């Protein structure tokens, strides 16, 4: 039977038969209120080699201590950002606490062309634009803190932000939380390792979705011919 399959597809090694099924790339969105842990979760997902690449955003804000240009963000001037915007070089963009952020179109297209999955660490504004501009193959996850007091504690212990920005972040928490219903999955980030495990489970399940598997219909058609070929 396998030899006949091999003849049909001009395959020498029957094992290659299974390579006829491919998968469209998955685009994973992580969003959360400030301090809920989406960036920390994103870094752990990348470090744990879940075979996913991250979309590195451009931003007009200054680097925080320890941040690296091209690794954490591409730090650019407001003029450069406006030029990218005018050229339609950004898939999404938003103004957050007085600074602009955006997702470079070419970088994302390059990752998708290579067949890799991609992770977006963006807020709800960016997520809405991505849904409008891309639509299919997006998987959205909203990360919640375990409690309001824990969220406030996390924000207070962050050393990167000024008191003014910290106050703004805390004031915006309620608005950020109001968008949770627009997301497919919800993670309560009480334990970061558990959260990373749960999101990795989401990734695994989404990769196996029927509608994402290219060539599956033909694969099943061939399998259904077993009676004729045996």
UniProtKB/TrEMBL annotation:
Residues 25-204 form the Guanylate kinase-like domain. GO terms for molecular function: ATP binding; GMP kinase activity. It catalyses: GMP + ATP = GDP + ADP. GO terms for cellular component: cytosol. The keyword ATP-binding applies. It holds the Pfam family Guanylate_kin. Belongs to the guanylate kinase family. Essential for recycling GMP and indirectly, cGMP. This is Guanylate kinase. It comes from Candidatus Endolissoclinum faulkneri L5. The gene is gmk.
């Amino acid at each position: 039977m396998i030899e006949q399959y091999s003849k049909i597809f001009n395959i020498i090694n029957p094992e290659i038969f299974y390579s006829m099924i491919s998968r469209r790339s998955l685009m994973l969105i992580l969003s959360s209120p400030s301090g809920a842990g989406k960036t920390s979760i994103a870094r752990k997902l990348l470090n744990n080699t879940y075979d996913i690449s991250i979309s590195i955003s451009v931003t007009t804000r200054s680097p925080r201590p320890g941040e690296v240009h091209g690794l954490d963000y591409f730090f650019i001037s407001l003029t450069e950002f406006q030029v990218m915007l005018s050229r339609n070089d950004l898939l999404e963009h938003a103004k957050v606490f007085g600074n602009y952020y955006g997702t470079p179109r070419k970088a994302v297209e390059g990752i998708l062309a290579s067949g890799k999955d991609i992770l977006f660490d963006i807020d709800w504004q960016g997520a809405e634009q991505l849904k409008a501009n891309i639509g299919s193959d997006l998987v959205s996850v909203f990360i919640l803190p375990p409690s309001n007091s824990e969220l406030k504690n996390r924000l207070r212990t962050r050393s990167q932000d000024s008191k003014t920005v910290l106050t703004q972040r805390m004031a915006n928490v309620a608005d950020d939380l109001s968008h949770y219903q627009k997301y497919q999955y919800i993670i309560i980030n009480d334990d970061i390792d558990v959260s990373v495990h749960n999101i990795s489970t989401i990734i695994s399940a989404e990769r196996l979705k029927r509608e994402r598997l290219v060539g599956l219909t033909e694969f099943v058609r061939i399998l259904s011919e077993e009676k004729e070929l045996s």
